[in-house]
Batch of 2 targets.
Target 1
Amino acid sequence: MKKLFGILGVLVAVFVLTAILEPNFLTAYNLQNTLRWTGLFGIISIGAAFVIITGGIDLSTGSVIALVGVLVPMLLVDVGMSLVLVLLILFGILLTMGIFHGVLVTKLNLQPFVVTLCGLLIYRGLARWLAGDQTQGFGSAFDGLRQLAIGRIPIAGDFGLPIPFVILIVLAFLSAGFLHGTVWGRYLLALGHNEEAARFSGINTSRMITVAYVIGVMTAGFGGLLFSLDVNSIQPAVHGNFYELYAIAAAVLGGCSLRGGEGSIFGVVIGAAVLRLLYNAINILGIPTQLEFAIIGTVILVGVSTDEIVRRLAARHELKTTRDT
Amino acid sequence: MGEIPLLEVQGITKRFPGTLALDSVDLRVGYGEVVAVIGENGAGKSTLMNILAGVLLPDEGTIHLDGQVQAFASVKQAHAAGIALIHQELSLLPNLSVAANLYLGREPARAGWINKRTLRTQALKYLERVGLKCDPQTLVAALPIGQRQLVEVARALASNARLLIMDEPTSSLAEEEAEVLFGVIRELQERGVSVLYVSHRLREVMSIADRVVVLRDGRITGRLAQESVTRDEMVRCMIGRKVNRIYTRKRNEPGPVVMRVEGLVTRSTKKRSLSFCLHEGEIVGLAGLVGSGRTELLRILFGVDMPKSGLVTVAGRPVELKSPHHAIAAGIALVPEDRAKQGLILDMSTQPNLSLGALYRHYLGWKLLDRTWENSVTKGMVGQLNIQGVQAGKPTRHLSGGNQQKVVLGKWLTLHPHVLLLDEPTRGIDVGAKQETYKAIDELAARGMAILLVSSESDEIIALSDRVLVMQDHTIVGELDHTELTEKALMQLATGTVHKSPTEEESIGEAA
C-alpha cells in the first residue's frame, strides 16, 4: 500500500508539473489520447507483472503484439474468416505459446530470459515472413470492431473515456482479484518469494509458473489485437518494438520486484500511466523526442533507487525498535 | 614426543551463543603423522577444524606451527602457513579443468597471461603424487567424485600444504575409491605431510590413524594410541555423557499400522533396501550419523525425490509419491531441515504461511480464498502452539527461530496428516521453544498421528521415541525399543560396532 502512494505521488507530480508548464496539456483531446495509450500499455504491463511476480521475465511481448497484429487483419480481411473463428484461432495460438514458454522454463529448466528472448526473435520473424514484410491493416472495414481501440464513452462535453482505458480498469480489477483473492494468486506470490518452500508446501509450482506465462502471452495477444485495431497500419518489422520493455518498466515502477513475489496490479497500472504521461509531457513541452528513452530511464532509476533507500531505512528503523523492546 | 611437533594446539576454547563448542582443547600433530578426530554429531569436530584452517577465530588458546605462535585471521593466512582444509562438500569448480583448479588464484602467469605449459607440467607433477592418471586439461565435472577428492588433495599439495585437514573425506566415496585415498594418505605420510582426519567411520579410523583423539561436547575425552584403538574403546569415549531427561512423556500403546514402507531402494542404496512401518500414535526416532541417509529418506517419503523402487502404503492404500502435493494428499507432511529455505515463505506473514498447505482443499467458489477460515485457523494455531510475536502483515522473517518452527508445524496441523515427518525439528531454537516443540509433538502422537523424527541430538531421540530405527550407509541397520534405548546402544548401531537387526529386512514388516 505504501508503495502505491509513492508511485501515485510521482503520477500526480508529473501531471501537475506538465499542466502548469503547458496549459494545452489539459485539453480533452490530449487527455483522451494519454488515457487511451495508458489503457493499451497497461494491459500488456499487467501480463508482464504476472510473469515477474513468479521471478521470471517475458521479453516476447512486443513480438507477440506484432504477430497478432499481422495475423488478425490477414485472417479477417485477406482470408475472410469470421470474427469468432479468428478469435478462437488466436486464443489457441496464444495458449500454445504461453504453455510452450512455461514448459520450457519449468520442465526443461531453461532461464526465462533465454526462453522469451527466443520467443521475441521467433515471433517477430514469423510475423515478418507471414506478411511478406508488407504493411497490414483492416482498411476501412471493421469500423465497429475498431471502436474497441479508438472508441470512447462520452462523459461531458468533448471529453469521453477511451474504451481501452475502460478495458484496462476492468482487467485490473479482475487481475487484482485473481492475485490477491484466489488460491492461485496466493500460490503465485508464495512461489515468487520462495519456490522451494512453496513446493514443500504442496504447491504444483511448475503448473502455476506455466499459468503465469500463459497470462503473460494472453494479455500481450489481447493488447496486440487492440494495438492493431488502433493503428490500422501494421508494419511487421517495427510494430510493437520495445513494447516488452515498456511493460517491464511499468511493472517495476509499479512495485514489482524482479526477484519475484512482490507486486500490486494497481501499482502496475499507475506505472503504465506514469510512462505514458512522461511520453506525452516530452512531446507537449517541446523537449526533443530523441531524449524520450533517456528521460524514462532516468525516472525509473530514480524511482527504484528511492524505493530501495526507503526500504533500507525502514529496515534499519525496524531493527532498532525490535532491539529496544 | 620431546621434539617440536608440526602443530601444537593449547587450550582452544570457542563459544557460540548458547553453547560452549570447544572447551580448552589440546592437540599435537607430529610431522608425517595421521591423527584422527572422532566424535558424535555436534561434538565440536567441525569447529576445531575451522579454527585450525582460519575460518573461525578461537576465543582462547594458542596455535603453534613449527613452534611458532600463529593467529590465523583468515583462510588465506592458514593456507600460507601450510594448512589446507579439504571440505566435506568439495570446493572445486566443476566447469574448469583439473590444472586450472589446482592453481586457481595462483596461476603461473606473465603480464596477466597464463603460462599454459608451466601450468600443465606443474599440474602433472602433483597429480602423479596423488596417483591420479588423468589429463590436466580434463574438466573436473567429467571426473568421478572419488577422483575429485584426489584433485583436492593435489591442490593442497600444490600450495605446499604440510597439514591436510580432511573433513569426512569418504562420506561420498565408494569403498574402492576410499581405499585409493587411504593409499595416497599413507604415501603423503612418508613424505612428511601430516593429516588431521575427521570421521565418524570407526573402521576407517582404525586402519588409517596413528593416533585417535575423541571429542565429546567440546572436550577431549580420549586419546588413543594406535595399539589401543578398538571400536569399543572409541565408542566408550564418544558417549558416556550424562543423559539429561530433557522431556518425559507417557508412552502410548501404538495403534494399527499407518504407513508401511517396503523394499525401498534409493539412488544411494548400497546394499540392502529399506523396510519399516509406523503405527498410529507412535513416535519413531530415526537415528544415524550425518550422511547416513536420514534426510534423503524423508525427502523420498515426502515426494521431493523419487526412489528407484519400493512400495509405500498409507492407511492401507499404496501411494504414489511423485511430488510433495501427492504426498500431502496421501496424508504425509514434512517439517523440513532447512526452515528458511524449505519451511517458510519468510517474506509472507504468519497467516498465509499457516494456511498455504491446506489451501488446496479450503476455498470458496471460483477458488476464492476463504478469509474467515484463514483467520480462524491462524487464531487457533497461534493459541494451540503458543506462537509469539505474530502480527497481521508482519513477515515471518521477524519471528524468532522457535516461533518460525511452530508456524511450519502449524501449517501441517491444519491438515491433520496421518504421518508427520520431522527433520531436526529443534535445530537452532532456544531451550524454552524446544520444550514447547516436544510437548506439541507428544500431543500430536497422543491424538493418533504417526511421527517419524530425525534428530542428531540423541537426548531428543531417547526422550521422545517409542522406537528407534538406526540408519547407517543408507539402510536401516537396527531397531531399538524405548526400553533398550541408551546412547551407547544408539552409537554402537550407528557406527557399525554391533549389528542388531532382524535377519531379513522383510521380517520388520511382518513383525508389525
Target 2
Amino acid sequence: MRHLDASAMSELAARDPQAVAWFREHLASPCEACETFLATHTDPLDGRTDALLLALAPARKAEEEGATVVPLRTATRSRRFAPPPARYWGWMAGALAASVLMVVLVPLVKGPARRDTGWTGEKGPGRITLELAVVARGTDGGLRRLDSGADVASDEVLLLRYHATESGTALLYQQRGHQPPELLGRFPLDAGTHDLEGLDGLAGVSLESDEGHLSLALVAFAPGEPASEQDALAALEADGSPDARPGTVVRFDVRVQSGQTLAP
Amino acid sequence: MAETDDVTDAVRRATQGESSAFSELYRLTRPLVARLVAGFGTLSPDEAEDVLQESYVRAFRGLPQLKSPGAFTPWLLTIARNRARTRLERRSLLQRMEEERVDPTPETVPALPPTLQVERDIEVVRQLIAELPEGEEKKTVQLFYIEGQLSAREIAEQLGVGKSTVTMRLERFRGRIKRELLQRVLAGRWD
C-alpha cells in the first residue's frame, strides 16, 4: 500500500494518472500515515485548508485585534509602533485648536532655508517647509510635550505631529548614536497641521528596549521630487548642506532613559 | 472561506499601487492570520506578533506577482504558516538557518472555490469535528476552530496540557482536513 510522501506529492502535482487514480481512492477514507504527512508537509493546500478551518469560528473584527499598524517592513523587537489611546486625539485636537504653533510645535526647521536652493531636478512645487512636534505618552496615558533633546523613559511612546506647507510624502527614520538611520515608515503628508499618520493610522513610536541618544528624522518630499529610500538617505546625509539634494529634513532628538515614565 | 469581494477589491487596488488598499487588506485579513498564528502554542506572544508582521511584509512585497486576487487569503495564510514553522524550527540547534522555508509563489495557490462550495466544505468540516470521538482532541479542536476565542497557549492552560500537545492536536486535525481536500481535488470536485 502506498502512502503520501514527497515523491507522491510531486506525481500528484504533475497529475500523473496512476498516482491520481490511486490516491483518489486511497484518500477517500482516513489514513493516519497520509494525514500525518499532510499535517507537516507544506503544499498549496495549506492556505485553502487554513482558510476553511478558520472560517468555522465567528468572524472577528480587526478592531478587536487592536491592529492599526500595517507592517510594511519587518519590525524589530525593540521598536514597535503603538497606537495612541483615544483620548490622545482629543487632547491633541484641543491643544491644536487653541494653539499657537510656535508654542505647540517644537521645530528644527530646515525647510525655509531651502526655498532658494539650487536643486533643479524634478519639476513640481517647491520644497516643503516642515515642522515637527513630539509628545511623549506614558504608561498611565499621560501626555507631555517634549523639546528636542529631552529625556524620555523607555516605557513611553512618542507621538508625532507635523506642520507642512504643502502636501507630499515623508519617510520617518530613527537613528541611534552613530548607527545608520533605520526606516520606520512612509507617510503621506497633507498641507497644514496633522498627526503623522500613514496607511495604518500610525501615530506613535515605542521606545521599548531603547536607551541613550535617539534621533527621529522626518524626510519630506514634495510631489515632484523623487522620494525613494535612497533619496531620503541622501537627504539625511546632506542634512548639513542640503542644497544639492531634494527633500526636507526635520530632526527631533531624545535621550531615552531606562525605567518608568518621567514626571511631567 | 470564500475570498470576499472586499478582499479581492483591495488586492486589485493594492496591486495598482493604491497605498490605502494595503491598510484595507491588513484590516480585513489580520484576524484570520492572527488566529492561524495563535494555533502555534509554543510561539511566545512576541514571536507570534513578529510572525504576523513578517507574513504581511512578505505578502505585500510579493503582491505584484499575484495573478489571481481571489488567491490572496490562502496565499497569505500559507506564508504565515511557513513563517511560524520557520520560527519554531530556528529554535532547534539541529536546524540550519539556510533551511528556511521558501514563501509559496502566488501561482501555486489557486483561488478558493465559489462560496457555495466553501459553505458545503465548511459543513463537511463541521461534520468531521462532530464525528471525532469524545475526548481531549475533540475539545481542543472545538475550542480553537469552532469557538475561535482562545489561543493554543490558552487552551493548553485551560485543559492542563502542554502547549505543544495542543499544537499537535490541531495539526493532526488539520492533516485530516487536508486529506479530505486533497481527495476532493483529485476527484475533480474542487479545481
